[in-house]
Amino acid sequence: MTGEREQKYIAQINLILKGFGKEVEVFPAKWQELGADYLYHAGYVLVRDEDVERVIRLFEGGTTGEGGIGGVTRLKLPPTVPPGAPEDRSPTQRFLKYADLRLGRGVVTPEHLFYVTPSVSPCPATEPEEVAATTPPSPFIDDKTTTGKGVKVVVLDVGWSDAPAADWLNGVTGEPEDAFDPAGLIKPYAGHGTFIAGVLRSMARETEVVVQSYFTIAGAIWEFDLAAALDEVLDLAPDIISLSAGTRTRFDLPPLGLDVFVESRLNRVNGLVLVAAAGNESSRDYFWPAAFPETVGVGALAESGTDRAWFSNFGGWVDVYAPGENLINAFLTGEYHCTEPPHTGEVRKFYEMARWSGTSFSTPLVAGLIAGRMSRTGENALQAADGLLAFALGQAVPGVGPVLKPGDAHNSTP
């Protein structure tokens, strides 16, 4: 990794390191030279509840934490690594390697850090770009048969900021985000949830959208806490959950906390669909939770509509691709200072609208199409998603994969 992309990568990870301090570590330790595989909680691991006792015996100590969801435990590691544990600069990695040798891979896992709109590192594919206040949202569908009426979508993100001029967002609710720093500048990641709600409503104008605030520190959240957040969201009785966040994992294994959520929660709610971003690392490596077979993993199409966006992850685990480059929608009003090369320090002024790119935004577009089809056909979310994915396969683009575009909530039905 060289040049501008390397600088962007380092700048973006440094935002998270600044936000979480010594709580977070990066694997490998020489990530600035080798690239980051994943970020994880220093001094903690995750294990299934049934494995806790034997893991504590193996580690000769450990303290179980509270919270989370039934089925998975956050274990605080003891201060001393057992004799015979493999060498590593990180004590947490030494415990993990020791567990691999004695119990097998996947019994003990890191507690990964999940972040909104991961790119070549944890970040949006691009920083938001200025457009005139009068610029209309794009893409935008106003189809009276696919309004999303009667459908509820919950968005897990950084929170919600009212955008009064955006009439297509009337009725959207959510937990307010802390969008501005002490100097009054728009924070990195701020406005992300509002933009997502705008994209979703631009596909299905009457969908009930609730934006929850969970990714509050540098746009990130620990795996254990994300599983609990997803479980909490089920109390809101959504038809669709839209999640524009994720991570790569150790050995590409499913993240344990979310694996338990999918097994014991998601799969037991009739008709519920989790739509998740495929990530923006331009890689075929698994990106979770989009890579779960039970989710709808969404990659991004280029603006041309005939190519994969340069940043989008890809591979057989990505279910569908949808527009995700240079989308225009609701944003904040204020001044933003760029943090990424080559625009570091550049000042941008926003007036309730922005242009933005990333699989973060192709994700709510697909969630909106599912909602739109539901209101047209009477299907539940899972049935509507299956119908749209079958339609997407029928219009697959060679070298890309199955594709959905604005209007397909209507086009995919008689």
Description of the molecule:
The protein has 414 residues and is α/β, with parallel strands linked by helices. 27% of the residues lie in helices and 22% in strands. The chain has ten helices and 17 strands. It has helices at residues 3-20, 31-34, 52-59, 91-103, 192-203, 223-233, 256-264, 359-377, 381-394, 408-411, and strands at residues 24-27, 38-48, 63-64, 72-76, 108-116, 129-130, 152-157, 173-174, 208-213, 220-222, 240-243, 245-246, 273-277, 296-301, 320-323, 327-337, 347-356. The strands form three sheets. Strands 1, 2, 3, 4, 5, 10 and 12 form a seven-stranded antiparallel beta sheet that branches. The radius of gyration is 21 Å and the shape is globular. The termini are far apart. Residues 118-123 have low confidence and may be disordered.
